[in-house]
Design goal:
76% of the residues lie in helices and 0% in strands. By secondary structure, the protein is mostly helical.
Length: 164
C-alpha cells in the first residue's frame, strides 16, 4: 500500500475497511427487505440447522483465531524493520488481508441467514460485525502491533500532525 503521509495511510486503511464492511451489510439489508417476497429457505430439520449453525460458527472461530495469530506473527517480524514508512507499508498489507478475511467471515452469517432463516445467523452477524469493528486498524493498534516508541509512536498516534 503506497502512501505519502501517515494521515493518508489511515485514510486508505479506513476507506478499504468501509468498503469491505459494506458488502455484508448490503446482503443483510437486502435479505431483510425481501424477507416476505423472496425466500431461499432450505428445507432442513431444526437439528440440521442447529448443526449447520454450530459448525459454521466453529469454523469462523478457528479462522478468526488463525488470522489473529497471523497478524501478531507478521507484526513481530516487522518490529525489526528499519524505517517507519517501510513498517507501515508492510503492516498495511497485513491489515488489509485481515480486513478482507474478517469481511468474508461477517458475510458468511447473512448468507447462512438467507438460506436457513435461523435466528442464530442474525445474532452471529451482529457478533461478527462487532468483532470486525473491534479489529479496526486504529493508530493505537498500529503503534502497539509495531511496538513503536518515542517519535515514531507520537507520529503514528497523531497521524503525522505532531511534527508539523
Amino acid at each position: 500500500m503506497k502512501f505519502n503521509s501517515v494521515k493518508e495511510y489511515f485514510f486508505r486503511l479506513n476507506n478499504a475497511g468501509y468498503q469491505l464492511a459494506m458488502v455484508p451489510l448490503i446482503v443483510f439489508i437486502f435479505h431483510y427487505s425481501t424477507l416476505h417476497t423472496f425466500s431461499l429457505k432450505l428445507e432442513l430439520s431444526e437439528l440440521s440447522m442447529y448443526y449447520l449453525f454450530m459448525s459454521s460458527s466453529m469454523l469462523l472461530l478457528i479462522v478468526l483465531t488463525v488470522v489473529h495469530f497471523y497478524v501478531q506473527a507478521a507484526a513481530r517480524k516487522l518490529v525489526k524493520v528499519i524505517g517507519l514508512g517501510l513498517k507501515l507499508e508492510r503492516l498495511g498489507r497485513v491489515l488489509l488481508r485481515r480486513l478482507v478475511v474478517l469481511a468474508l467471515v461477517v458475510l458468511l452469517m447473512p448468507v447462512g441467514l438467507v438460506f436457513t432463516h435461523h435466528t442464530g445467523f442474525a445474532i452471529g452477524f451482529v457478533v461478527a460485525l462487532l468483532w470486525y469493528l473491534v479489529n479496526w486498524p486504529t493508530p493505537a493498534q498500529v503503534s502497539n502491533l509495531l511496538q513503536l516508541k518515542g517519535d515514531e509512536k507520537e507520529m503514528v498516534l497523531s497521524k503525522g500532525e505532531a511534527f508539523k
